[in-house]
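Re: that backbone. Tokens:
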């Protein structure tokens, strides 16, 4: 799926996704990624939702989100409950959806200047 181009280059915008690829700004990414409005952190060791753990949790928290989106691939798959619980205990919103829905939601929230962080599996 392709999205309408936005002239803003100051923030990360997801331009498209599909076929094992996520396009953020002009960069094509074929591995898991943690993305915020200003940061892009590749996660080459994360291939499945079950691979999410303490390292990713720490990287996400370092971006100081108010909401965390998990894009789990072609279909919605939930990480371990303990992974979500860490965000909920910290008062951070947490949602799991398929990657397409997470990409669309991320773009909307970023355009509203919300402090959102998305973990996206292609």
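Recovered sequence:
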């Amino acid at each position: 799926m392709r999205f309408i181009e936005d002239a803003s280059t100051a923030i990360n915008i997801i331009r498209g996704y599909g076929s094992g690829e996520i396009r953020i700004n002009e960069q094509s990414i074929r591995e898991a990624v943690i993305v915020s409005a200003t940061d892009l952190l590749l996660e080459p060791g994360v291939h499945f939702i079950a691979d999410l753990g303490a390292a990713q949790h720490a990287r996400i928290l370092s971006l100081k989100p108010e909401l965390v989106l998990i894009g789990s691939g072609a279909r919605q798959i939930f990480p371990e409950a303990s992974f979500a619980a860490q965000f909920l205990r910290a008062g951070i919103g947490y949602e799991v959806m398929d990657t397409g829905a997470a990409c669309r939601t991320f773009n909307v929230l970023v355009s509203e200047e919300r402090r959102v962080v998305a973990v996206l599996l292609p």
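DSSP finds three helices and eight strands in the chain. Helices lie at 54-61, 81-89, 99-111.
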